[in-house]
Fold these 4 entries.
Entry 1:
Amino acid sequence: MEHRPATCETCGLVPVIERLTGATEMIAESAAMQAVLRRVARFAASDAPVAVFGETGTGKEVIARVLHASSERASGPFVPVNVAALPAELLESELFGHGKGAFTGATSARQGLFEAASKGTLFLDEVAELPLSLQAKLLRALQDGEIRRVGENHAFASDVRIVCATHRELADRVRDGSFRQDLFYRLKVLSVRVPPLRERRTDILPLAQRLLADERTSARDFSETAKAALLAYDWPGNVRELQNAVKHGAALATGRLVEAGDLPEEMLSIRPRRPVALRPLAEVERDHILAVLDACGGSQAEAARMLGIARNTLWRKLRSFDGRAGTADAST
């Protein structure tokens, strides 16, 4: 444990995760994302399966890698597999391995990803796309801690932690019959939902600046107009789309700053959000009631009807405002 990397003081997780092509660094300035990471830090001490939910591009695999790197299994392998990317006929062999002669072309035995992830974490991305025919076998592996290669009769123990992710609502899949209910509850022992980027806007600029630092470009920051464009956009593709936008800006930038014109065209038609003037509710109510009263020509009876309140209630409110109750008419 003394050789483990330092953990974040805010959430208690390992903030930099090594990968084959470099490292992934967590950026979480928003309160929403910090709450997610604190929840994940509590999961790290457990070996229970974890389900990570969230829209496409929100960083579900990063969460899975952070969870692995912060757990007691950090010294073991992290093995990711995109369930939706493999044909159904190959997926069983990919996950569980196969014996020699199990099918045409199986000239030798081959271990599957469950074996490759031994003592570590197996990350099943887009698990909602798992064919029904394989869901029963995955359920058996989770229940018994044993796996069996395709074409072999003997089973052997599997010491693997399962972390899965999906951008779909698994509960809806259960209701429509495309996902087993018993497997759903086996996978969703612990769960976390990663918020979309539009709900954590304070993360946008720190993420963009960190992504820009990874690019081979002379640009080191964004101009003020570019920052406004980044903040105004709703990011339907989330962090993945942000990464592509930064690459686009870095490729077109000619100076030390990425300008708004260097960003993708779809972002340039978005007008920056205007700040909303925040006022007390009592002040908003007062202005609305007086506006309705003026529109009704000063008639309290008509104004009360338009507002959907009793006339004596309107009278009390007007009296609390500025004494207009006494000057209004008495018409009915």
Entry 2:
Amino acid sequence: MKELIKRLIRYSSTPILDAFAQSDLTDRSILLQGAQAAFAVRTVQHVQSLSDVGFRVFSQFDEDGIIEWLVSRLPGIPAAFVEFGVEDYREANTRFLLRHRNWRGLIMDGSPANMERAKASPHFWQSDLTAVAAFIDRENINGLIAGNGFGGEAGILSIDLDGNDYWIWQAIDVVNPWIVVIEYNAVFGDLLSLTIPYGPEFRRTRAHSSCLYWGAGIGALEHLAKERGYALLGSNLAGNNAFFLRADLLPHFDGQIADRRARPSLYRESRAADGSLSYIKGGARRDIIADMPVVDVSLGKTVRLGDVGNIYSQHWAEVMGTK
């Protein structure tokens, strides 16, 4: 079983004019291997953490397997999703659901060119997929979702904006997802409830040259989730996507996930002033953006990141190799 799950699909297409121009044979092979991995994880009854059932088909990391395991344990889950921040949908949290389970979905991205590329893919006409180009803020998000036919119950809401993620989830009230997958910024630690202040024009690449200043920490998202009636089930192995379940559905997972904590991230995506990778790691990433403002949502006040004290639990510090 473990060996089959480990045969993850490490799919990444080469830069070509049409990112979706794959041969029919290759596409079928990818989906067949994904279906085999999906069958394997569906038989797993108990996990130490969600990463135990992770695998990658079209997701950035191991989200496809985690989503498959969660969905398979929720009978009657609405077969509809909303995902935004998808770029051209070549790599996304819901694309495997679309292809493997034939869910209907709404995807959104701020780039019209990205959405045109998504519409050019064969699976756009082979599935019930709506693609909308829009720069999302908390004033327009509900209109965008409802205006495209996705109000009410939904299986999954997936948020990956690299910016106002906390504030957008807080604003959404037209859709009632069973599962929320949302990206968190592990640089903000796990002890406090920190997010960037809301800014409708926020751009990660403009906010700070390191590109480390964006989004919300896991503590802020847990704080919001509790307010909204959701509970954390855990995160992916890479430590950047958290999975929340509507609290009334928790009995479906009683005793099945031993460790529901989110993980810290180890990847080194920081940028130097010239835009090149600088490979800063661990707690040193926090030092680079220490002068930037963050909101502690549990206290309702804005402070400098460098003034809030320790933000990493002993567990996170040990995993990151931070003393």
Entry 3:
Amino acid sequence: MSYKTELKKRSDEIEEILLAYAPKGQAPARLIKAMNYSLFAGGKRIRPVLLMETVRLFDGPVPLARPLAAAIEMIHTYSLIHDDLPAMDDDVLRRGKATNHVVFGEAMAILAGDGLLNCAMETMAAHIPYDDEVYLHGYLRAMSEIITAAGHNGMIGGQVLDILSEGGGPDKEALDYIHKHKTGALLTAPLRAGAMLSGAGKAQLQDISTYAAAVGHSFQLVDDLLDIEGEAGKVGKSIGKDAADGKLTYPFVYGIDATRQKIAQLYDSAVKSLRPFGEKGKFLKETADFLAKRDH
């Protein structure tokens, strides 16, 4: 079975999970509609796919991973809604569709993002396995990992420095922080969370963390290149905004050729970290390759 077929199979699983945990209830219908508009706008679902795959890698509890997978995608989606706002990146296109604030208005988009973030927390908290002596500790560790990655010491901290660095000169230290936190944190968290939930040992957690860091960094570097060389129709969002907004990116600091070389180095690091897992790490290895070579 080809990698694309395998990825589609796993992405379909995530769609089913999201349908089970999607925002619902007695909230105003327009809020629920705005939240689900972005949640089901498509995308590769890489973060929850990686979480589920890591749980399977360690023969962990797949049913307990489902609410965590839904939560990580809700958090990612909320971050995209807010990132596209006029006060942030001011973008009108996301995943090939009009951004949330274009469709529902700025105020509703802010609240839809807030709603998804809180829904993620509610979803994880509602499924804590209090009576499961085997996996309770791992679930709580995984939950904490995801929450921390989304917070001020993770993704939000990276977003803030990204804003503060706009229009400035090349700053390698700031760039490393932005890449590690703004994008890397929410790509590292699902892999580490999946390992924690499953009770992975210290050495195993270190190997999967090394893989996660390499993949997360590579993902951002490819994003930087796509903003320069990509096609809007494929990428699903506006092209050329990084340079126009004076963003601090890897190509800006090091150049395009060095960016490609760094992506190759990160891929090698990711593959090396998977060696202890043998054939069971095949999908993760192919995912690293897919992310390093993607055109969207």
Entry 4:
Amino acid sequence: MAKIAVIGAGSWGTALTHCLSGNGHDVAVWSVDPDEVDMINRFHEQKVKLPGVILGEGVRATTKLEEAVSDRDALVLAVPSPFTRSTARRMAPLCRYGQLIISVAKGLEEDSLMTLSSIIQEEIPHCETAVLCGPTHAEEVGKCLPTAIVAGAERRHVAEYVQSLFMNEYLRVYTSPDVRGMEIGAALKNVVALAAGVADGLGCGDNTKAALITRGIAEIKRIGTAAGGQAETFSGLTGIGDLIVTCASMHSRNRRAGILIGQGLTPDQAMQEVKQVVEGVYSAKAGMQLAQKYGQDAPIIAACNEVLFGDKSPREAVMALMNRDPRAEVTKLEWKAL
């Protein structure tokens, strides 16, 4: 049994708390919101963000970060990506040397273009870091539906330790050393999922969705490999797998926000309607900047930025994508000689 703290009591943090507690670990939960803490301690349930998932009797929540962090074998950092740096900065003086921090959010920092694990390493250099990501909606993990995910770390024994913490009969955990590729794929797929939602909101069909998913993963792979990720990663769970589930499911807050934007709401109105952090909105600018930094073509991510932050309507963005100059689908294949 390990002693673990989950930092963040949103839907994903709650689902992972349920998993870890069910695996027999001693789990504490931290939230900045006293109402969330009271809810979890009284009802053993996150009634607002993950209703119906009942946490173990031994799970306790607190608003005191020091109480949550101290004397824990591992810390699961599950706050939304825009708050990763500020939360890590608060945690830094409380963490002991070598303490493991597992980043489970998805995103890129807009100004620095840093991945979340890199932010944690910068703010808490005396800690060990790992990541956990893949096609994993909290609603389904909370219901113990069969799911696969990837534990990433630069050192094998760290990834395998994370694997041992989470793996059970319904959550199959793989390992990977390609932390950078995993995190870039996890962040950029949220932007493509926004585009998929916009297409749904406009009334486009399955053909459109298939095109967005396949051309979207091509875009993500180009950027991700140029930025240091491994090509194989983008064909796996944290690449195409995560993209499929985020583009296709109504559990996806990115897709839901995109649908609302396609139906005529502004991005701000859509986020208010979804009532949760829409990570793709925060990653869109960073994704475009990353593509430009490495000289990669990113038409879908560019279109998302034009809709989110420019003056282009969703329908105009779709037409602009469809009317781009003709090109081959795969550029490295050779044609038969005349």
